Amino acid sequence: MKQVLSRWVVTPPSEPALVQPLAELLDIPETLAALLVQRGYASPDEAKNFLRPRLDNLADPYRLRGMPRAVELIAAAVRGGRTIVIHGDYDVDGQCATTLLTRVLRAGGAEVVPFVPHRLRDGYDFGPAGLAQAKTHDASLIITCDCGTTATESVTAAQAEGRRVVVTDHHLPGAVAPADAMVNPQHPECTSSLNELCGAGVAFKLAQALVAELGLPENLPYHLLDLVALATVADVVPLTGENRTLVRFGLKTMASSRWPGIRALVEVVGLAGKPIRAGHVGYILAPKLNAAGRIGDAMDGVRLLLCDDPSEARTLARKLDTINARRQDMDEAMLDEAVEVIEETVDLEKHYGLVLAQEGWHPGVIGLVASRIVERYTRPTILVALEGDEGRGSGRSIPRFDLHAGLSACAEHLTRFGGHRMAAGLSLRRERLEAFSTAFNEAVRSTLTADDLIPTRRIDVVIPVQHLDDRLERLFRHLEPCGPGNPAPVLAVGRANARGHRVVGSNHLRFTLTDGTGSVAAIAFDWADRVDGDWWRRPVDVALKLERNEWMGTSTLQARVVEIRPSQGSNLQLAVRNS
Fold it and tell me: In which band, very low, low, confident or very high, does the pLDDT at 14 lie, cut at 50, 70 and 90?
């Protein structure tokens, strides 16, 4: 092999005393039973509830702190015929939450003005732009979505003007704004089990509580689950518990959405008439909406989602597609520039934390590129877009380093910063850039060792090839939607061989994977230049995901390879019986 990209971390095999009875009782393969036990679903009832979640098991929305008061204030504004401004964040979550509440309140007869700020012109959170909207429309009530928890100054100003403010959010609070009602599962006084909801998830719970109060059909919120699924996947919150149920049914709703805007978005990316999975949302659909918030006007996303005219919706969807294509071009150009700087000027043996800055980089895109730098170099990375004497930065981290804590250690060099363990934003003066870069690298080096910079590959189950069959792939779909907290299963085959290998496309390998127990077609994307010329002559360990290859109207089983390495022999132990 030319390179081994990661250290494999194999999940310890589950106890046979738990796996085998579960497999027999549910009539499922031991591989799936082992995965269920690993993920905490060891009893038949727990496993059944996980594999087949139900909407009637959703939590009572009134378990969320502040819900009764929020419903009271909103219902009073609707009944009084008063204008309501719904103020969301500019990302996909904020756009979807704003759309969801706008549709519900308009169905209840309310006069609603939806608004999301422009990233560059208005900035983040409920601020002066939102206050101006409320004043322009003489709104008596402002409802925030996916923001507002710490907007103390704006909330106070709105109240001084005689307006009520209901905050719905899911971000960790610092100083909590004195809203008239606050529905945030992260609030320190909220004791519900719904603390992983995204902003649109919180808006959905509010909609559940509102429909009875406003005399609306009880099932109306369920027709909006496609918005919740879009937001939940895009916001990268854990796909466990209620989130997983909402996304599971939201993806089904999305495939045949009643909303022209969603249908147009699905059509423009070529998914019409096809089952939609979480990966389609994260990598294909959500970026179109996110692009509007990053380099355009996020209100274009809201206009699309609220659009009820199919022809207009198609026009808006094509516009977002064009914006996203431009954003992708910016991504690639910025990534090439950043990689060139790293390869030519950075000593990676000394720099554990990377800070890169450039004039002309777009502030709305640097976070995405920082993520790709982290993937490539496995180091906490901050990119800074410079303009004049100021710099706006966005950072991403690796699991072993708390980015927010790292920035706190460098706070003397920053004008402001905020975020969490894995992602953060900041601003600084140009003259502080070099000192900040040095301090940030020192903060990372004081926490991480060289070993921490080696990426790890999670292996769930090691099995023989004969267990990689159509039935297992079909049953694996019951684990979906997969994502944070519920990752897609990664299987491994040890001491295998590649037969009939060939290079396809620009850099992909196709071969038949065999280990003496059976064989399966395999595809390894972007791996042709990562292996030695005679790699196929020697035994290999292969990490893979089991999927179907849809091509020219035919569907076949295939192993999508995520890594190939020279065989480590007995280091990979079978987790299920080789029957």
Answer: confident
